[in-house]
Amino acid sequence: MCKSKGFVAVDPDNVDGYTNANGVGLTAAHQLSYNTFLANEAHAQGLAAGLKNDLGQLTQLTPHFDFFVNEQCNEFGECGMYTPSKAAGKPVWNIEYTSTNFNKGCPQQATMGMRTTLKSLSLTASPFTECSTNPWPYPSPSPSPSPSPSPTP
Q1: How many DSSP H helices and E strands does the chain contain?
Q2: What are 23-71's pLDDT values in tens digits?
Q3: Are 14 and 120 contacting, i.e. CB atoms less than 8 angstroms apart?
Q4: Helices assigned H by DSSP within 5-50
Q5: Is 84:92 a contact under the CB 8 Å cutoff?
Q6: What is the DSSP string of 102-130?
Q7: Which helix (H) or strand (E) element contains residue 59?
Q8: Mean pLDDT throughout 6-21?
């Protein structure tokens, strides 16, 4: 449906359930398999796949995803965790929700090749403020070929 509506990418959210008490025995291995499945399915539909969350498996997931989104990497000290993604030449976007963290992180993230935006928690179209030091031009994500088959249950 996404492709038919003109979208070029999908960005599944909350894909780190194994890090929470989940009551169903979800493990890191389950999550890795599921997240890889999500990326492969997006690619099979001709869509780029973005990863938000699951920083604990970022190194293993970087080959499968086309771009990365972080929320509040300045606030939580996570910006440096995207080194494998940047080394692979993949775009990384960061969203900050307070001007303090936004202003503090802009210069650092520009040197890391990260694009940072200040948004309200409601994620409406405005406000939309970008760091003046953002790397530009920034490549549009494009789907990679599926690197491996979908997982089996």
Answers
A1: 5, 6
A2: 899 999 999 999 999 999 999 999 999 999 899 999 999 999 999 999 9
A3: no
A4: 28-44
A5: no
A6: HHHHHHHHHHHT-EEEE--TT--S---EE
A7: helix 58-61
A8: 92
Taking only the tens place, the pLDDT of each residue in 101-142 is 888 778 777 777 788 888 888 878 777 788 877 666 555 556
Buried b (16+ CB within 10 A) or exposed e, 52-89: bbbbebbeebbebbbbbbbbbbbbeeebebbeebeeee
**Phi and psi angles of residue 4, each rounded to the nearest 5 degrees, phi first:** -65, -20
Radius of gyration for the chain, computed over Cα atoms and rounded to the nearest angstrom: 16
